[in-house]
Amino acid sequence: ELKVEQNPLFLSMQEGKNYTIYCNYSTTSDRLYWYRQDPGKSLESLFVLLSNGAVKQEGRLMASLDTKARLSTLHITAAVHDLSATYFCAVDNFNKFYFGSGTKLNVKP
Amino acid sequence: GAVVSQHPSWVICKSGTSVKIECRSLDFQATTMFWYRQFPKQSLMLMATSNEGSKATYEQGVEKDKFLINHASLTLSTLTVTSAHPEDSSFYICSARDAGERQKLFFGSGTQLSVL
User: Fold this and answer.
1) pLDDT tens-digit profile of B17-28?
2) Cβ A41–B110 below 8 Å, yes or no?
3) Fewest CB atoms less than 10 Å from the CB: which of A1, A15, B2, B69?
């Protein structure tokens, strides 16, 4: 069974600071996704990483993928309060998406 | 961008009744739709994969007679929670894969089910 592990599960940080969320997965896959979820809402797509070495950036968020290490990272630069949410990574494995446990991010003003 | 419409957004029902949740892809054809369940403060758990015109594939531990899935067309999949019980209370989310752009997965807005 495919396992997708995220860490940390909870992250409390001050505005302006940098931090990285890690996503490890247990099987070969070249498609890795990052989503954001606000309380009581569905998922918002952030990034789709389709190949080894892929790096994508949008605003203060940057995601990367290392398929050999089976690792993806979501880096937050100079965090702002609006980034407070739960972030999920997901792996596409044989037409099924498997999600990590999520990282609840709280950015303090 | 692509939109997946999920209805209802929330539903409260009595124990023993059945509830149907609809998931529609509004501007693309979705040969595959997925149903997830999410408990508070937890991740999404894949329940089943629904392919248009064929039987759904259920994940291990998910009762297919309890959670009936129908994918009658390229734009509509339904999940029916039969004889609902309080332990079925959860947030249910559907997603649809664009047949034309298979790397993209779009999510519905979710349905909060509360069974009294």
Assistant:
1) 999 999 999 988
2) yes
3) A1
